[in-house]
Amino acid sequence: MIRFWEVVRRDLRLALRQGSDSLMVVTFFVLTVVLFPFGIGPEAGILERVAAGVLWVTALLASMLSLDRLFQTDYEDGSLELLVLTPTSLMVVVLAKVLAHWLTTGLPLLAAAPILAVLLHMNADGFAILLLTMLIGTPVLSLIGAIGAALVLGARRGGVLVSLLILPLYVPVLIFGVGAIDAAVQGRSAEPHLLILGALLAACLPLAPWATAAALRQALE
Amino acid sequence: MDFCHTRAMDTTEKLPPFSGHGLGCIRGGRVVFAGLDFAVAPGEALVLLGPNGSGKSSLLRVMAGLLKPAAGKLAWGEVATGADPELHAARTHYVGHHDAVKPVLSVAENIRFWARLHQPDAGLAQGAVETALTRFGLAHLRDIPGKLLSAGQKRRTNLARLLAAPSPLWLLDEPTTALDRHNIKVLETVFAQHRAAGGMVVLSTHQDVDLPGARTLHLDDFALETEDGQP
Questions:
Q1: Could you tell me the pLDDT band of residue B13, with boundaries at 50, 70 and 90?
Q2: Topology of domain B1-91+169-223, per CATH?
Q3: Alpha-carbon distances, residue A46 vs A20, A118, A171, A174, A180 (angstroms)
């Protein structure tokens, strides 16, 4: 457990000192969402209709931006070999790195989402559910993303490859994230969607670190 | 699981030998070595020799557990190391080609992180980190970020891990790269003390490192002959 928090602390420290990653992700998120009113016109009715989808799709793309940093620098400077040789399960190390990644990229998205929802005239009924879906959904994005990031280690143009690998796997999160918000806005219960999102998180929590650890070992062979 | 090796290092309790039997390694479809046997007893050193590409690095990675051998097995005493990889990691320090020094962390932070991963007891780790900094002449650089270090200083920061958390088995891949004459001497003393305390050292090198009584292993002897009869 101490080792888990040591890795989290180190990755947070690295992210804060390098700084640009979290900022880049949030800026990308904000800028892309702001493009939509320009593209489809400022009519409140249309924007309101697409708000949930736009927010989730852009959040998905934004969270993918920083994925190649998750293991790439450690892989290049030899830290990954030593992390694999840590006297603890590699899954613990992976989970710690994913947590740090979520704290530096997922949480800022969560903070920016309500402000952008106002910009898109989202119905006020959807706000709480929007935050809730992002709170459950963004960790799933980080967990699944880690598998892709580990698989493309050592490949040229890994950034493009990781998008192709990961985007299809993100679809369930997108469907049920948007579904929950739409249900809330239309006055139906969002619970079934939220439960499925929760189930996705519960499934990814053990499976994604396991798959990531296997991919990392493969990358170092 | 972490305690067994520290206890063994503190007292003079006898460690079992580390050995490999019939090891084989295949890289990119080419057999690098085959039928390789080695054994290192506590207090011993083993120097791996051979030209570039003869498999020194691969053998060290196999020993560390980063690479699965294509054939044969590694054992710690009678027990196969593959049976409990975490236990094997706890008693091993591996120093590879890369220095694993983070550019935005200071020298002390870099060393402390690896020390605490190996030795989660904060008090013990802190004392050992200080010792390691002093021994490798890094004390005055402790707050300098990794990006400002020279190649030799980075290498010393990496080597300081050896002392910052105790482990009986040291696997080093050309540890003297980028080190000056003085620091090679320091490293030799560190090796000697580690062996006197019952530790084991396995290293590959192209330079002369003074290891009294070290055994040597020529990787060439285990290369398969190619079709034209050349080794």
A1: low
A2: Rossmann fold (3.40.50)
A3: 34, 14, 23, 20, 19
Q: Residue B28 — pLDDT band, cuts 50, 70, 90?
A: confident
- d(CA A100, CA B176) in angstroms, rounded, equals 35
ipTM: 0.86
Q: Rounded to the nearest 5°, which phi and psi values hold at B216?
A: -120, 150
3-state SS class at A101: helix
| Domain coverage including residue A157 | 2-220
Interface test with B, best of A85, A88, A221 (most B CBs within 10 A): A85
Residues of chain A with pLDDT under 70: none
Q: Which of A17, A84, A85 sits opposite B104 (nearest CB)?
A: A17
Q: What are phi and psi of A48, to 5 degrees?
A: -60, -40
CB contact (8 A) between residue B66 and residue A85: yes
Cα separation, B215 vs B220, whole angstroms: 15
What is the predicted pLDDT for the residue at B94? 94
- pLDDT cut 90: percent of chain A above it: 67
A178-189 confidence digits (pLDDT tens): 999 999 998 899
Nearest to A141 by CA among A214, A32, A83, A57: A57
Interface of B with A (CB under 8 A): 1-2, 64-68, 86-87, 89-90, 92, 94, 96-102, 104-105, 109, 113-114, 116-118, 120
User: pLDDT tens for residues B45-99?
Assistant: 999 998 888 889 999 999 999 998 998 999 998 888 888 888 999 899 999 999 9
Going from N- to C-terminal start, the domains of chain B cover 1-91+169-223, 102-166
Looking at the structure of chain A, the number of domains it has is: 1
Q: What is the pLDDT, as a whole number, of residue A126? A: 87
CA distances from B90 to A74, B87, B170 (A): 20, 5, 11
CA dihedral (A152, B30, B175, B3) in degrees, to 10, reads 70
Q: Tokens for B4?
A: 């067994």
The H-or-E segment that residue B203 falls in is: strand B200-204
Sequence-separated (6 or more) residues with CB below 8 Å from residue B212: B192
